[in-house]
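User: C-alpha cells for YbhB/YbcL family Raf kinase inhibitor-like protein, please.
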Amino acid sequence: MIAAAVAAMSVSAGCGIIGGGSPTDNALDELSVSSPRFRDQAPLPAEFTCTGQSGNPPLRWSGVPPKQTKSIALVVDANNAQGAAAVHWVLFNIDPHTTELGQDSVPKGASQAQTSTGKPGYAPPCAQDAVYRFSVYALNAELSLKNDADLRATLDQIAQHTVARGRLSAAHIE
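Assistant: Done. Predicted C-alpha cells:
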C-alpha cells in the first residue's frame, strides 16, 4: 500500500498529485476551488478528519472550460513534514456541469478509485502536520475505468486528460 502511494506521488511535479503537461502540451486553464467550511491555507476542520463524523468537506469550483471538458475529477492528497505522501480520495467521471460537491457525498454517476489504503472512498486524514490538497481537474474525456479502479492507473489517466486544474489547500488539521 505504501509503495502505491509513493508511486502515485512520483507522478507529482510540484503541483499536487498530478503535475506535468496537458493533453495538448499547452498551458492549463486554472479553476477556482473553494469550500464554505474552510479557506485556502487555513486548517482543515476536525469534523472532516479521522476524529470527526462528517466525511468529506463540501467543495465548489468554477472556471471549467465548457467546450473541452467532458468530465471532472477530484484528488485529495497530502504531504507531511517528513515527506510522507498519501492519497485520501479520488473521484472521477463527475458530470462536467457539476460545480460543487456536497458534504459527505459522491455525485450521481461519479466513480471512486482506490486510495493509498487500497480501498475506494474518502479516507479521512489524520496527520496533524500535513498539508491537505483538494485538487479539481477538468478532463477532456470520461475515464474508461470502473469504480474501485487502481490508484496509479487512475492518476495516470487523469494526468493524460487534464485541460484545467485548481486547488484548495488546508495547512493542517484544526
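User: Anything notable?

Assistant: The radius of gyration is 15 Å.
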